[in-house]
Amino acid sequence: MALVAAATAHAQYVPPSTIDQNMLPPDAAIVDAPPQEYFDLDAWLSASEFGPLTLRDDWSWQLLPDGIIYRAYLANPKESRLGTQIFNSHGDGALWDSTLGGRMGLIRFGTTDPSWPQGWQFDVEGSAQVRLDPDENLDLRSVDYRVGAPLTYGFGRHRLKFGYYHLCSHMGDEFLIANPSFTHVNFVRDVLSLGYAYFVTENLRVFSEVGWAFRTDVSKEWEFQFGLDYSPARPTGPAGAPFFAVFGHLREELSYSGNFVLQAGWAWRGDRSSHLLRTGLHYYNGLSDQYSFFRNFEQQIGVGLWYDY
Q1: Which is the CATH superfamily of the domain at 61-308?
Q2: What is the mean pLDDT of residues 109-129?
Q3: Fewest CB within 10 angstroms: 22, 246, 265, 275, which?
Q4: What is the pTM of this model?
Protein backbone atom coordinates (compact mmCIF):
# COMPACT_ATOMS: atom_id res chain seq x y z
CA MET A 1 0.00 0.00 0.00
CA ALA A 2 2.88 2.42 0.83
CA LEU A 3 4.39 1.87 -2.62
CA VAL A 4 1.04 2.58 -4.29
CA ALA A 5 0.58 5.80 -2.28
CA ALA A 6 4.07 7.01 -3.14
CA ALA A 7 3.54 6.29 -6.82
CA THR A 8 0.24 8.16 -6.77
CA ALA A 9 1.78 11.18 -5.01
CA HIS A 10 4.50 11.53 -7.67
CA ALA A 11 2.27 10.91 -10.66
CA GLN A 12 2.41 13.63 -13.31
CA TYR A 13 -0.68 15.55 -14.37
CA VAL A 14 -2.36 14.11 -17.48
CA PRO A 15 -4.50 16.60 -19.44
CA PRO A 16 -8.17 15.60 -19.45
CA SER A 17 -8.29 15.75 -23.25
CA THR A 18 -5.85 12.80 -23.45
CA ILE A 19 -7.86 10.54 -21.15
CA ASP A 20 -10.15 7.99 -22.71
CA GLN A 21 -13.44 8.78 -21.01
CA ASN A 22 -14.68 5.26 -21.76
CA MET A 23 -12.02 3.90 -19.39
CA LEU A 24 -13.37 5.89 -16.42
CA PRO A 25 -16.14 4.63 -14.18
CA PRO A 26 -19.42 6.61 -14.51
CA ASP A 27 -18.92 8.58 -11.26
CA ALA A 28 -15.18 9.11 -11.60
CA ALA A 29 -13.82 12.70 -11.36
CA ILE A 30 -10.44 14.09 -12.34
CA VAL A 31 -9.27 15.69 -9.11
CA ASP A 32 -5.83 16.80 -10.31
CA ALA A 33 -7.11 19.33 -12.92
CA PRO A 34 -5.51 22.79 -13.16
CA PRO A 35 -7.42 25.61 -11.42
CA GLN A 36 -10.02 27.35 -13.58
CA GLU A 37 -9.20 30.96 -14.54
CA TYR A 38 -11.29 33.63 -12.79
CA PHE A 39 -13.83 35.73 -14.68
CA ASP A 40 -12.54 39.30 -15.16
CA LEU A 41 -15.66 41.49 -15.13
CA ASP A 42 -13.79 44.72 -15.91
CA ALA A 43 -12.11 43.19 -18.96
CA TRP A 44 -15.42 41.79 -20.17
CA LEU A 45 -17.17 45.15 -19.85
CA SER A 46 -14.44 47.01 -21.72
CA ALA A 47 -13.92 44.39 -24.44
CA SER A 48 -15.68 44.87 -27.77
CA GLU A 49 -15.51 43.95 -31.40
CA PHE A 50 -14.57 47.47 -32.46
CA GLY A 51 -11.48 49.40 -31.47
CA PRO A 52 -12.83 52.67 -30.02
CA LEU A 53 -14.31 50.99 -26.94
CA THR A 54 -11.27 49.11 -25.69
CA LEU A 55 -9.51 49.89 -22.42
CA ARG A 56 -7.28 52.98 -22.60
CA ASP A 57 -4.40 53.92 -20.30
CA ASP A 58 -3.39 57.33 -21.72
CA TRP A 59 -5.50 59.56 -19.47
CA SER A 60 -4.33 63.12 -18.86
CA TRP A 61 -5.65 66.51 -17.75
CA GLN A 62 -6.91 68.69 -20.61
CA LEU A 63 -8.22 72.25 -20.54
CA LEU A 64 -10.98 73.03 -23.08
CA PRO A 65 -10.88 69.51 -24.56
CA ASP A 66 -12.22 68.68 -28.00
CA GLY A 67 -15.22 66.34 -27.97
CA ILE A 68 -18.13 65.61 -25.65
CA ILE A 69 -18.17 62.45 -23.53
CA TYR A 70 -21.94 62.40 -22.94
CA ARG A 71 -23.40 63.78 -26.15
CA ALA A 72 -26.72 65.60 -26.39
CA TYR A 73 -29.79 63.55 -27.25
CA LEU A 74 -30.23 64.14 -30.97
CA ALA A 75 -34.03 64.45 -31.09
CA ASN A 76 -34.46 66.35 -27.81
CA PRO A 77 -35.67 69.87 -28.72
CA LYS A 78 -34.57 71.25 -25.32
CA GLU A 79 -30.86 70.40 -25.69
CA SER A 80 -28.40 73.28 -26.14
CA ARG A 81 -27.12 73.29 -29.72
CA LEU A 82 -27.39 75.25 -32.96
CA GLY A 83 -30.49 74.11 -34.78
CA THR A 84 -33.61 75.13 -36.64
CA GLN A 85 -36.72 73.40 -37.88
CA ILE A 86 -39.63 74.72 -39.94
CA PHE A 87 -42.86 72.78 -39.65
CA ASN A 88 -46.60 72.82 -39.90
CA SER A 89 -48.31 72.51 -36.54
CA HIS A 90 -51.72 70.89 -36.70
CA GLY A 91 -54.35 73.59 -36.13
CA ASP A 92 -51.77 76.41 -35.87
CA GLY A 93 -50.20 76.72 -39.31
CA ALA A 94 -46.52 77.23 -40.02
CA LEU A 95 -44.06 77.80 -37.19
CA TRP A 96 -40.30 78.26 -37.08
CA ASP A 97 -38.35 76.98 -34.05
CA SER A 98 -34.64 77.66 -33.61
CA THR A 99 -32.09 76.88 -30.90
CA LEU A 100 -29.18 79.30 -30.57
CA GLY A 101 -26.50 77.95 -28.28
CA GLY A 102 -24.18 75.04 -27.69
CA ARG A 103 -22.26 72.89 -25.26
CA MET A 104 -18.53 72.69 -24.66
CA GLY A 105 -16.10 70.90 -22.38
CA LEU A 106 -14.19 72.97 -19.82
CA ILE A 107 -11.87 70.35 -18.35
CA ARG A 108 -11.24 66.62 -18.80
CA PHE A 109 -9.23 63.92 -17.13
CA GLY A 110 -9.20 61.20 -19.75
CA THR A 111 -8.16 60.35 -23.27
CA THR A 112 -7.58 62.85 -26.08
CA ASP A 113 -9.60 61.13 -28.81
CA PRO A 114 -12.29 63.68 -29.84
CA SER A 115 -14.52 61.03 -31.42
CA TRP A 116 -14.48 58.57 -28.51
CA PRO A 117 -13.25 60.38 -25.39
CA GLN A 118 -13.06 58.36 -22.18
CA GLY A 119 -12.73 59.61 -18.62
CA TRP A 120 -14.19 62.48 -16.59
CA GLN A 121 -15.33 65.78 -18.08
CA PHE A 122 -17.04 68.94 -16.84
CA ASP A 123 -19.13 70.79 -19.44
CA VAL A 124 -21.13 74.00 -19.67
CA GLU A 125 -24.14 74.57 -21.93
CA GLY A 126 -26.58 77.35 -22.73
CA SER A 127 -29.14 78.27 -25.35
CA ALA A 128 -32.13 80.38 -26.31
CA GLN A 129 -34.93 78.29 -27.84
CA VAL A 130 -36.94 80.64 -30.02
CA ARG A 131 -40.32 80.30 -31.75
CA LEU A 132 -41.19 82.63 -34.64
CA ASP A 133 -44.52 82.93 -36.46
CA PRO A 134 -44.00 83.10 -40.27
CA ASP A 135 -47.70 83.94 -40.81
CA GLU A 136 -47.34 87.08 -38.64
CA ASN A 137 -44.24 88.75 -40.14
CA LEU A 138 -41.94 86.43 -38.19
CA ASP A 139 -43.14 87.83 -34.87
CA LEU A 140 -41.49 86.36 -31.80
CA ARG A 141 -44.09 84.15 -30.14
CA SER A 142 -42.03 82.79 -27.25
CA VAL A 143 -38.53 81.89 -26.10
CA ASP A 144 -37.18 79.45 -23.51
CA TYR A 145 -33.75 79.98 -21.96
CA ARG A 146 -31.58 77.15 -20.67
CA VAL A 147 -28.19 77.06 -18.93
CA GLY A 148 -26.52 74.03 -17.40
CA ALA A 149 -23.35 72.39 -16.10
CA PRO A 150 -23.08 68.57 -16.37
CA LEU A 151 -20.33 66.36 -14.96
CA THR A 152 -19.90 63.31 -17.19
CA TYR A 153 -18.00 60.03 -17.18
CA GLY A 154 -17.31 57.60 -20.01
CA PHE A 155 -15.68 54.19 -20.01
CA GLY A 156 -16.07 51.50 -22.66
CA ARG A 157 -19.66 51.39 -23.86
CA HIS A 158 -20.99 53.26 -20.82
CA ARG A 159 -21.74 56.95 -20.27
CA LEU A 160 -22.93 58.62 -17.07
CA LYS A 161 -24.08 62.19 -16.48
CA PHE A 162 -24.91 64.11 -13.32
CA GLY A 163 -25.73 67.74 -13.81
CA TYR A 164 -27.69 70.87 -13.13
CA TYR A 165 -29.74 72.99 -15.50
CA HIS A 166 -32.01 76.02 -15.23
CA LEU A 167 -34.87 76.59 -17.68
CA CYS A 168 -37.32 79.49 -17.85
CA SER A 169 -39.93 80.49 -20.40
CA HIS A 170 -40.85 83.97 -21.72
CA MET A 171 -43.40 85.41 -24.13
CA GLY A 172 -42.77 87.60 -27.14
CA ASP A 173 -43.99 91.20 -26.91
CA GLU A 174 -45.62 91.05 -30.34
CA PHE A 175 -47.62 87.96 -29.36
CA LEU A 176 -48.86 89.55 -26.11
CA ILE A 177 -49.89 92.72 -27.94
CA ALA A 178 -51.80 90.70 -30.56
CA ASN A 179 -53.36 88.45 -27.87
CA PRO A 180 -54.13 90.69 -24.85
CA SER A 181 -56.38 88.04 -23.29
CA PHE A 182 -53.57 85.46 -23.16
CA THR A 183 -52.40 84.71 -19.63
CA HIS A 184 -48.64 84.31 -19.37
CA VAL A 185 -47.31 81.60 -17.04
CA ASN A 186 -43.94 81.94 -15.33
CA PHE A 187 -42.61 78.45 -16.12
CA VAL A 188 -39.32 77.85 -14.26
CA ARG A 189 -37.24 74.76 -13.44
CA ASP A 190 -33.96 74.32 -11.55
CA VAL A 191 -33.10 70.66 -12.01
CA LEU A 192 -30.62 68.03 -10.87
CA SER A 193 -30.44 65.28 -13.49
CA LEU A 194 -28.92 61.80 -13.68
CA GLY A 195 -28.49 60.12 -17.06
CA TYR A 196 -27.11 56.84 -18.36
CA ALA A 197 -26.34 55.89 -21.96
CA TYR A 198 -25.09 52.63 -23.47
CA PHE A 199 -23.56 52.16 -26.92
CA VAL A 200 -24.93 48.98 -28.48
CA THR A 201 -22.53 49.67 -31.35
CA GLU A 202 -20.28 52.67 -31.76
CA ASN A 203 -23.04 54.34 -33.84
CA LEU A 204 -26.13 53.23 -31.88
CA ARG A 205 -26.87 54.55 -28.40
CA VAL A 206 -29.76 53.94 -26.01
CA PHE A 207 -30.30 56.25 -23.03
CA SER A 208 -32.50 57.24 -20.13
CA GLU A 209 -32.48 60.16 -17.73
CA VAL A 210 -34.35 61.28 -14.64
CA GLY A 211 -34.58 64.88 -13.47
CA TRP A 212 -35.70 66.32 -10.14
CA ALA A 213 -36.40 70.03 -9.80
CA PHE A 214 -35.51 71.55 -6.42
CA ARG A 215 -37.06 74.89 -7.43
CA THR A 216 -40.15 75.22 -9.61
CA ASP A 217 -42.80 77.68 -10.69
CA VAL A 218 -45.78 76.22 -12.60
CA SER A 219 -43.58 73.21 -13.36
CA LYS A 220 -43.43 70.27 -10.96
CA GLU A 221 -40.52 68.21 -9.68
CA TRP A 222 -40.07 65.05 -11.76
CA GLU A 223 -39.29 64.38 -15.42
CA PHE A 224 -38.13 61.31 -17.36
CA GLN A 225 -36.35 61.16 -20.71
CA PHE A 226 -35.51 58.12 -22.82
CA GLY A 227 -34.81 57.05 -26.38
CA LEU A 228 -32.17 56.00 -28.87
CA ASP A 229 -30.17 57.57 -31.65
CA TYR A 230 -28.05 56.31 -34.51
CA SER A 231 -25.40 58.58 -36.04
CA PRO A 232 -21.86 58.26 -37.42
CA ALA A 233 -19.28 58.15 -34.62
CA ARG A 234 -16.29 58.62 -36.92
CA PRO A 235 -15.44 61.21 -39.60
CA THR A 236 -17.68 60.76 -42.63
CA GLY A 237 -16.03 62.95 -45.23
CA PRO A 238 -18.23 64.80 -47.76
CA ALA A 239 -20.42 61.74 -48.41
CA GLY A 240 -21.95 61.73 -44.93
CA ALA A 241 -24.03 58.90 -43.46
CA PRO A 242 -27.64 58.31 -42.39
CA PHE A 243 -28.94 59.12 -38.93
CA PHE A 244 -32.16 58.59 -37.02
CA ALA A 245 -33.27 59.45 -33.51
CA VAL A 246 -36.22 58.71 -31.25
CA PHE A 247 -36.92 60.66 -28.06
CA GLY A 248 -39.58 60.58 -25.35
CA HIS A 249 -40.16 63.03 -22.50
CA LEU A 250 -42.59 62.57 -19.58
CA ARG A 251 -43.30 65.40 -17.09
CA GLU A 252 -45.05 65.44 -13.74
CA GLU A 253 -46.94 68.70 -14.39
CA LEU A 254 -48.64 66.92 -17.30
CA SER A 255 -49.63 63.90 -15.15
CA TYR A 256 -46.61 62.10 -16.67
CA SER A 257 -47.73 62.72 -20.21
CA GLY A 258 -45.36 64.55 -22.54
CA ASN A 259 -44.11 64.27 -26.09
CA PHE A 260 -42.57 61.96 -28.68
CA VAL A 261 -40.03 63.10 -31.28
CA LEU A 262 -38.70 61.34 -34.36
CA GLN A 263 -35.95 62.68 -36.64
CA ALA A 264 -34.22 61.01 -39.60
CA GLY A 265 -31.98 62.13 -42.42
CA TRP A 266 -28.31 62.60 -43.31
CA ALA A 267 -25.35 63.53 -41.10
CA TRP A 268 -21.72 64.59 -41.38
CA ARG A 269 -19.07 64.10 -38.67
CA GLY A 270 -16.07 66.44 -38.77
CA ASP A 271 -12.68 65.18 -39.95
CA ARG A 272 -10.65 66.91 -37.20
CA SER A 273 -13.30 67.22 -34.53
CA SER A 274 -16.35 65.39 -33.26
CA HIS A 275 -18.79 68.08 -34.43
CA LEU A 276 -21.95 66.71 -36.04
CA LEU A 277 -24.08 68.37 -38.73
CA ARG A 278 -27.48 66.87 -39.52
CA THR A 279 -30.39 67.62 -41.81
CA GLY A 280 -33.60 65.72 -42.30
CA LEU A 281 -37.24 65.22 -41.39
CA HIS A 282 -38.70 66.26 -38.05
CA TYR A 283 -41.85 64.87 -36.40
CA TYR A 284 -43.17 65.92 -32.98
CA ASN A 285 -46.31 64.71 -31.24
CA GLY A 286 -47.41 65.76 -27.77
CA LEU A 287 -47.72 68.75 -25.48
CA SER A 288 -45.72 71.81 -26.49
CA ASP A 289 -41.98 72.05 -25.96
CA GLN A 290 -42.36 75.84 -25.75
CA TYR A 291 -43.21 75.92 -22.08
CA SER A 292 -45.26 79.11 -22.17
CA PHE A 293 -47.77 76.88 -24.00
CA PHE A 294 -46.97 73.72 -22.03
CA ARG A 295 -50.61 72.52 -21.97
CA ASN A 296 -51.18 72.95 -25.73
CA PHE A 297 -51.12 69.85 -27.91
CA GLU A 298 -48.91 70.06 -31.01
CA GLN A 299 -48.28 67.77 -33.94
CA GLN A 300 -45.32 69.06 -35.93
CA ILE A 301 -44.25 67.79 -39.36
CA GLY A 302 -41.35 69.53 -41.07
CA VAL A 303 -37.63 69.66 -41.86
CA GLY A 304 -34.65 70.78 -39.85
CA LEU A 305 -30.93 71.49 -39.70
CA TRP A 306 -28.93 70.81 -36.51
CA TYR A 307 -25.30 71.28 -35.44
CA ASP A 308 -23.70 69.83 -32.30
CA TYR A 309 -20.24 70.80 -31.07
Answers
A1: Phospholipase A1 (2.40.230.10)
A2: 95
A3: 22
A4: 0.81
